[in-house]
Specification:
The chain has a single domain, classed as Gcn5-related N-acetyltransferase (GNAT) (Aminopeptidase, 3-Layer(aba) Sandwich), CATH 3.40.630.30. It is α+β, with helices and mostly antiparallel strands and 154 residues long. It has helices at 14-24, 35-46, 95-109, 124-131, 149-153; strands at residues 3-8, 51-58, 61-73, 76-86, 115-117. Strands 1-2-3-4-5 form a 5-stranded mixed beta sheet. The longest helix is centred in the middle third of the chain and has 15 residues, at 95-109. The protein is globular, with a radius of gyration of 17 Å. The mean pLDDT is 93. Pfam families: Acetyltransf_1 (PF00583). Keywords: Transferase. It comes from Chitinibacter fontanus. One of its GO terms (molecular function) is acyltransferase activity, transferring groups other than amino-acyl groups.
């Protein structure tokens, strides 16, 4: 299996949308994505300032992706990884570690010194990220469903 990398741009995202759909509609996520929503998500993210994405190909077939964007922080620019995945059929073979190492090398070359991401503790990805050096911060993510203004006044 010949592994290559390509930078993700708006004009080459479609095959990676298919990969994302397959990975996140399968266990353990079972998200229920539709291809149009994934393509819209990717197209929107690819337009963010400081977007950077990297695709992994095995024999020219997309098998992994990583993307996110730079965010200004107190002492400089940090990189927020929004999406990272490896084809479900190929997980556990070191491809995720290989993709992340290449991604990290490229981010470092762009001047980033820190990266961060969100994941759930109850999914296998959590253990993968811990294994490759991510530390858990003492933070939480809060969510709130938006309601109509009339409902807020009731």
């Amino acid at each position: 299996m010949k592994i290559t990398f390509c930078e993700l741009k708006p004009d080459n995202l479609a095959p990676f949308c298919d990969l994302y759909l397959r990975v996140f509609n399968a266990a353990p996520w079972h998200d229920g994505w539709h291809i149009d929503a994934v393509c819209e998500r990717f197209a929107t993210f690819s337009q963010f300032p400081r977007f950077y994405g990297l695709g992994m190909l095995a024999d020219d077939v997309p098998v992994g992706l990583a993307f996110g964007w730079g965010e200004r922080w107190i002492e400089g620019w940090h990189f927020f990884i929004k999406e990272f995945c490896i084809d479900s059929q190929l997980q556990g073979q070191g491809l995720g570690k290989q993709l992340f190492a290449e991604y990290e090398r490229r981010l470092h070359a762009q001047g980033y010194r820190w990266t961060f991401l969100n994941t759930a503790r109850a999914v296998p990805a959590y253990h993968f990220y811990r294994k490759i050096g991510f530390l858990e911060e003492d933070q939480t993510i809060l969510t709130k469903q938006l309601t109509s203004p009339a409902a807020m006044l009731a």
